[in-house]
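Session log. Operator J.P. requested a structure for one protein chain; no other inputs attached. Running the standard single-chain path with token output.
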Amino acid sequence: MRINSLSVLLLKILGCNKNLFYNIILLMHKIIVAIDGFSSCGKSTMAKELALEVGYIYVDSGAMYRAVSLFCIQSGLMTDSEIKVGELEKKIESSKY
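Structure written below.
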């Protein structure tokens, strides 16, 4: 990320460290990094290390998809050809605390 003079001034005014500053900028610009590749090639390992190094938030989207799929199967919301999206939304809403 290129830091311009306004960014440096903001960094000094906020008195925050570089990683916090980068996260603020990323939130403002909504930068998302996606890593694609073959199964078991180290995508998650690399993504976790990269996120730690640059101070990003790591989200394992594959685990989220698997969790939602398992929930759908166990709840009878998924067949071979469809997902009952409306019922899924209701179940998710009713499970919020």
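Operator note: The helical segments are 5-14, 18-29, 43-54, 61-74, 85-94.
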